[in-house]
């Protein structure tokens, strides 16, 4: 009888953890999808150093604003996002944050949102809010890692 009770408790714990994980993944997918939709709605908005509004965004301003509209609070700068949020990942999923630096030893100075299909959305000083290839000859060698949250 005790073995049956223990087995039932163990099964309940396993099943509840499966549903929690599925729920967490669904919630994360919602935030990522919503943030990307928000960011895409601002394609063409000019780059503005320190910009955090639809009048002009810098890279981290766009990411912070987009995720904020999706219900997630992120730090203000690319470096703070890199060091204080999420966990590092090796293979990209839609919604992951991609970080870039002038060289591999320096702090992150640029952040973009991976949107799938080898593309990212960003606010770059040369183009404002735009979509770029992750294999872009400028960005690819400056890529230092991705984070998921």
Descriptive notes:
The chain has 149 residues and is an alpha+beta fold. It has a single domain (2-148), classed as endopeptidase domain like (from Nostoc punctiforme) (endopeptidase fold (from Nostoc punctiforme), Alpha-Beta Complex), CATH 3.90.1720.10. The chain contains three helices and eight strands, in the order αββααββββββ. A hairpin with a 3-residue loop joins strand 6 (119-124) and strand 7 (128-133). Helix 1 (2-40) packs across helix 2. The protein is globular, with a radius of gyration of 19 Å. Mean pLDDT is 87; it is low at 7-21.
- By CATH, the superfamily comes out as endopeptidase domain like (from Nostoc punctiforme)
Q: What is the element string, with H for helices and E for strands?
A: HEEHHEEEEEE
| Strand line-up of the largest beta sheet | 3-8-4-5-6-7
| Total helical segments | 3
How many individual domains? Answer: 1
Taking the sheet with the most strands, its summary is: 6 strands, antiparallel
Low-confidence stretches: 7-21
Summarize the entry for a quick read:
This protein is α+β, with helices and mostly antiparallel strands and 149 residues long. The chain has helices at 2-40, 59-69, 78-84; strands at 52-53, 56-57, 87-89, 97-100, 110-116, 119-124, 128-133, 143-148. The protein has one domain (2-148): endopeptidase fold (from Nostoc punctiforme).
Topology:
Layout lengths: L1 H39 L11 E2 L2 E2 L1 H11 L8 H7 L2 E3 L7 E4 L9 E7 L2 E6 L3 E6 L9 E6 L1
Antiparallel strand pairs: 1-2, 3-8, 4-5, 4-8, 5-6, 6-7
Helix pairs in contact: 1-2
């Amino acid at each position: 009888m005790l073995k049956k009770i223990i087995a039932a408790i163990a099964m309940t714990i396993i099943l509840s953890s499966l549903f929690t994980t599925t729920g967490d993944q669904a919630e994360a997918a919602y935030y990522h999808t919503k943030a990307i939709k928000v960011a895409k709605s601002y394609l063409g908005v000019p780059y503005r150093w320190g910009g955090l509004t639809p009048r002009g965004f810098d890279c981290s301003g766009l990411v912070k604003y987009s995720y904020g509209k999706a219900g997630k609070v992120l730090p203000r700068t690319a470096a703070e996002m890199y060091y204080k949020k999420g966990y590092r990942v090796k293979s990209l999923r839609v919604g992951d944050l991609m970080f870039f630096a002038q060289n591999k030893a320096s702090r992150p100075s640029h952040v973009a949102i991976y949107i799938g299909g080898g593309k990212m959305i960003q606010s770059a000083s040369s183009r404002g809010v735009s979509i770029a290839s992750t294999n872009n000859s400028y960005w690819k060698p400056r890529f230092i890692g991705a984070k998921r949250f």
